[in-house]
Structure to design on (151 residues):
């Protein structure tokens, strides 16, 4: 039995609430995604740093932390692991040599397609019981919830 097949984490509120269902779904999705990322040699969270670098180009550690939405100490640990794995390199800043700029390596760039596949298959598995219209509506509703919390 895999963790993602039958895991129903305990919830501190009634199990029929949206909050509890989102917690269970989030945990199951996290376990599924983590296992798939491991096949690429990545740990959960590292894909966010790489994606931000691909989308926004080279960044300072603080800039990357802000883009990903984590604190700088978390980003520091993430970058240390990515650097040890050969997925990022740190270079001195062009205008201020005291700063360090993070860039993805060729090895990281080679993961891009695999990472897209991992997210695609994860989404497919998550939404397999939904029709196309239901998927679109779920996406719209989730974004509405995200937007209301972001205010």
């Amino acid at each position: 039995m895999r963790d993602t097949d039958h895991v129903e984490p305990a919830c501190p509120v009634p199990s029929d609430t949206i909050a509890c269902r989102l917690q269970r779904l989030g945990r199951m999705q996290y376990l599924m995604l983590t296992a798939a990322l491991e096949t690429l040699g990545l740990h959960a969270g590292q894909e966010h740093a790489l994606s931000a670098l691909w989308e926004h180009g080279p960044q300072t550690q603080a800039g990357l932390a802000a883009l990903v939405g984590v604190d700088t100490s978390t980003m520091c640990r993430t970058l240390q692991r990515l650097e040890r794995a050969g997925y990022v390199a740190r270079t001195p800043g062009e205008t201020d040599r005291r700063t360090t700029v993070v860039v993805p390596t060729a090895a990281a760039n080679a993961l891009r397609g695999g990472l897209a596949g991992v997210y695609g298959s994860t989404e497919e598995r998550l939404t397999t019981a939904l029709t196309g219209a239901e998927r679109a509506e779920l996406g719209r509703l989730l974004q509405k919830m995200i937007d209301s919390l972001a205010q």
